[in-house]
Design goal:
Elements (H helix, E strand, L loop, with lengths): L1 H4 L2 H20 L1 H53 L7 H24 L1
Helix pairs in contact: 2-3
């Protein structure tokens, strides 16, 4: 999970979502109260679940470690094949706009000639 979270694309997307969430909460008092209640509920459920699940996780630790290692290798290969994962969302959007703009210009030129 931490390896996925550290991918530039994922971390920049999370930052964007977090900023939008915080901005929305600040701008709209009714949404803020709903979000605050939801956050408290999620925190309570997470705390209650963590204490119940801990004994199971301890038992499954060797299996989780093996799955984690396998997933890590898979993510490394995916990162090699998709360099897009190492770019921030803003750069991907900018690159896409440039590509589309270039293709539209090429199409205009082709139609004009």
């Amino acid at each position: 999970v931490s390896q996925v979270a550290n991918l530039t694309l994922v971390s920049s997307a999370c930052d964007m979502v977090s900023t939008a969430y915080a901005s929305t909460k600040e701008s709209h008092p009714y949404i803020r109260s709903v979000c605050d209640a939801a956050e408290k509920g999620v925190k309570s459920v997470t705390e209650a679940t963590a204490s119940c699940v801990q004994p199971v996780l301890t038992t499954l630790e060797p299996h989780v470690a093996a799955a984690s290692e396998y997933a890590s290798k898979g993510l490394d290969k995916l990162g090699e094949k998709l360099p897009l994962l190492q770019k921030p969302v803003e750069q991907i959007i900018s690159d896409t706009k440039e590509l589309v703009s270039s293709r539209v210009a090429d199409a205009k030129d082709a139609v004009s000639s």
